[in-house]
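Input chain follows. Return structure tokens only.
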Amino acid sequence: MLGVMSVGSGIKAAEEAGLDLVEVSPNAKPPVCKILDFGKYKYEQQKKASEARKKQKTVDVKEVKMRPTIEEHDYGVKLRNAQRFLKAENKVKVTLRFRGREMAHKDLAAEVLHRFRDDLSDLSKVEFAPKMEGRQMIMILAPDPEAAKKAAKEAKEAPQEEVNETSEE
């Protein structure tokens, strides 16, 4: 801490130390400068930025494809896959493909998508409502962090209650 000084005397002090005068906070009154090795400073800033990028979570979009006439078991499989994707904090794109005369029954397809949305309401929120795109009806669900935490908490409490009930018997 050398205190408040002029720019010229700051540069002179830095040269005497064999280092650089680096402005750290230009918006402060007065601006804050440090005497340090600029190359080392840049390297450290680069390392901090790369570390921040490593910690950043990229959100992938996973896709679940169905048909309007999907059977109950197949629907359950697709639902479990979507739940797994949402728990891994990925977005889910639900695609309903139409073939031939199925295009005449868009209302049935919309019901399937609304049922899918309702079954996943505890883990997700609708980011993109069901919409026709050519011969497909598409909906995008995004993970809802609050709902996921709530569901995880309930799942954690449920096995404990079962243990308590069996120990009482």
